[in-house]
């Protein structure tokens, strides 16, 4: 029923079948047993900056804090969420046309293109409409159940898919992940544009691979020079911004489905921000 869905506030239709907005917005209807409190889109300007890494860390930490967490992995262009945090049980059919999501051993629920293409070792380049259809299924035809916070690992850039997600899913906030080199450009050309056009606030900014900690003396080595993070966050009014070091422990964990157990102090302010939204 319409009134059970977080996307249907104020809808006066008797059922979703007669709902004008459901007809207009094919993403509006979710399964009756699904209630999602907050949706966070994790975006980057390009691939390889650590978007999936950050999504995995944020989702796993919120899960350890006791929240019910889902991850919707829409980026089929690189190694992704299922490989980084592991899958204890794969997705399976629900009723005839519905899906029960996968979950990892910590209980994070996951839907990912990787799970329907288990043998894909090559990056998948799908045309926009195809992947939009897949995401619609992941959103509407999946029994997510009660989710406190859903993280969406977005495709990089301003592709059709990214726009489809932003235009159709009720994203409450964006977390931007950038490397020190592309921080300025990503914020200026992507994040702020999305935020303005779609009226979605940027709730967090992550400068990933910001520095290396010297294993001998603990000094921060700023491989890419002084960070512009603070200045940029201030310019664009982004309240929560963090720097994540390059840490071999992270990449090893990511390659071995172990990212769910890794504690990264740097993300704590983001976790506080999410808790404030819930
Ligand atoms: N802070 C970091 N320290 C070490 N390795 C990292 C870090 N961030 C990302 N990586 C590694 O870099 C690669 C790209 O990260 P990934 O999250 O897949 O990027 P994206 O999703 O933006 O394409 C992965 O192999 C990942 O393990
Ligand atoms: Mg990725
Ligand atoms: Zn040193």
CATH superfamily: P-loop containing nucleotide triphosphate hydrolases
Provide the succession of SSEs. HEHEHEEEEHHEHEHEEEHEHH
Poorly predicted regions are 1-6
How many structural domains does the protein architecture include? 1
Going across the major beta sheet, what is the strand order? 5-6-2-7-1-8-9-12
CATH topology: Rossmann fold
Name the overall outline: globular
Structural class: alpha/beta
**End-to-end Cα distance:** 23 Å
Task: Provide a count of the helices.
Answer: 10
Q: What integer value in Å does the Rg equal? A: 18 Å
Helix content: 25-40%
Largest sheet: 8 strands, mixed
What oligomeric assembly is this protein in?
Answer: single chain
CATH class, please?
Alpha Beta
Average of pLDDT: 86
Strand share of the residues? 15-25%
Number of DSSP E strands: 12
How would you describe this protein?
The longest helix is centred in the last third of the chain and has 16 residues, at 183-198. Helix 5 (128-140) runs parallel beside helix 6. Residues 1-6 have low confidence and may be disordered. This protein is globular. It contains 10 helices and 12 strands. With 278 residues, the protein is of the alpha/beta class. The strands form 3 sheets. The chain has an 8-stranded mixed sheet, sandwiched between helices. It has one domain: P-loop containing nucleotide triphosphate hydrolases (Rossmann fold), CATH 3.40.50. Magnesium ion (MG) binds next to helix 2.
